[in-house]
Structure formats: structure tokens, C-alpha cells
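hiii, so i know i said id send this last week but things got crazy w the move. better late than never?? heres the sequnce for the chain we talked about at the cafe, plus the structure i predicted for it. fair warning i was half asleep when i ran it
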Amino acid sequence: MEIKTSIHTFFLLVGLNRLGKEVFLEKIILPQLILDCEVPPKFVHLEQNAGDFDQKLLEAIQYPANTEYVFVSVPHLADEFLDYLKRHALKNRYSIEIFDFGDSKSAFHHFSDAKVHRVDYRENLTISSNYEAYATCLLPENKTYHIIGDTHECVAELKTMLEDFGFQFDESDRVAACPPDDQAFIFLGDFIDKGKQTRQMVEFLFENQKYFYFVLGNHESFVYKYIRGEIKGANQTIVDTYFDSIPVLKADAELLAKFNALVKNAKPFYELKGRFIATHAPCKNKYLGKMDEKSLRKMRNFHLNRDMPIQDQLLFLKKEASEELPFHFFGHVACANAFRIHNKVHLDTGCVHANLLTAAITDGTTVQIHSIPSHHHTTLTKKLPHLF
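okay and structure toks below
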């Protein structure tokens, strides 16, 4: 039997009295999980009747998640216990999968949304997951990271900031000299639209992409899918107003190919384990680092209601912020100031709106903010809000 699952999953091992949990875990499940990925995922094994079960479960699944898999031995399927697990799985964006060895006498009627695997322990069992995709979002240690907020086609300002960090460029805007290898650079997404320099920005990033990490922004995601015909029924006024790179890219196949290559090279987030995570948009902790579709969307896009105060819509950041958690860097919401609430660090200071381009410099333990003035002219009729 081959089972495909995802990281951040509860595995409920049901009806183990004939086989024994130790045999199943050590000789069947764990070797497959370790062999299926280059870097072994972390896991925790919990006993339902253990005295510290609740504490260890919450330690394992609350952000920052320190386990990719949680095995729970369930000799007897009490409805109250399963409801408890479902609540915590939903709250922390974990999925649940059940291995049933046939003696649990349960129809799993209240687990219709779970994957239930009827397993004969004599079968060969292979488990594969999306751990490899997740691992590509993990950053190397022992580097200083420069995390740059939304640029929106502000090419001149981006070059100036990179020169501040030690880059030099030739007459063709290619890197002629770069900082030492222990310096790394992350773009938080939304490098296209609004700035009226689609060609210049795409060409600049494409030619120098080997020097940078790219987080996928909602603008890149939308434009990529829209041009490919994957988005139907979009409001044309919104498309024309906010995604003006589309006609430029559609008119030039070579430029579009370069843009597509940049999008495919981008990741939904970048994470330095235990130190920081960088996403495009602000989002709740339960979505950070998760690979399910909803979490990926939440890390990429935060829908603001323009008729409501912006800060009121972001109060969850203040509620979830903590000095005990890894830094969370994000942009997406343009405002007049970079702000920090404990571990939450906002970096979109509206460069395209004639304000600032901002970056954070961090080794994972401290944060410095570096901003440069914008030379763009804004079309905004209102001033950017000052938040927090």
C-alpha cells in the first residue's frame, strides 16, 4: 500500500493490540518517512493515556511547529478524544490521517473529512509526502539575511539599496561585484505592477536571480495565473487598475518567459528554523510554514477591506506577537512606517507611493531596519496610514 500525505499531519494508529505500536512505528512507518526525504522530518509519538499527553501535543503542534508529523496511538476511539484532536488539528492547520488495523470497530462516521486507511500489517506500506517541497523553503544557517519589502517595479531604488549592501552593477545592470557569501538577500514579493517599469524590473531580476531568494507575492501569483488562463471571472476594472504588468508581459513572449521563470523560482515562504520566517503577507501564526492550499494563500495574500480602518484588521498581529517566537517578516500592506511588534516585523513602506523602500537585516537573533527614500511620484489621493 502506498499512502501520500502531507507534513503537519496527525497519524492516528488505531487498533494496534494485535501488532504492537513499537513494531509498527520502528519497522514500518519511521524508516519510510526517513527514506522518502533527504533530511529526516521531525516527529513525536504520543500515547493517548499518557499523563502529559495534552501538554506534549500542544508543544508539538503550536507555532513554531517543531514537528512535521505527530503519531498518536489510539487503542480505543472515544468520540470525545477524537473531537479533541480534530479541534486542535483545525486550529493549528494539521491534517489527520487514520491507520485502522481492523479491530477498532469504528465506522469513523464523525471523521468524514479524514483519510482513513484500512491496513493489514502484513502489507508493504510506503508513505510519501510533500516534505521535499517544504524543505526547499528552509534557509541555510550561519548567514546574515537582508529581507527587502515590496518593490513594485521601483528598479532604481532597489539597485540603490543593494549597492548599500555591497553590490556593484555594470552598465547592463548585471552584478559586477557582490557581498561575501555569508550575506544573503530575500525579496518579499510583489516586484511587479504599479511602478510602470515592468520590463526593467523583470530583466534586472532575471539577469541577477542567482544572488537572491524570492518569496511569491500575490501580484506575481495573480498575473502568472491570469495570463495562463487559470483565473476566470476576474473583475476587469480591478485587473486594469492593479495589474498593469499584464499587457506588457502578454505583448512580449521573451519577457513573459523570463517572468514565468522568476515565478517558478519563488517560494511561498522562507524559513530559518527556530529563528525567523519570511512571508509576503501578514497572516495568523497557524498558517506559517504550512503547505496546504489555504495556508499558502494566507501567507501570500491578505484581503483588506478599504472601508474599514487598516490597523483594526491587523490587530491579530498584536495579539499573536511574542518575544519568545521566531521573527515573522512580511510586507504586502503599504503604510508610512516599518513597524515591529515583538517578533512581528512589517517591511512594506510604499516605495511605489513616494515613501520608502525598507529592508530588515538579521542573523536570526537581532534585527536592524534600513530604509531609503523613494523617487517615485504617487497617484494616491490619501496619505499612507501610519500603523502601530
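btw The longest helix spans residues 21-35. thought thatd interest u
miss u guys!!
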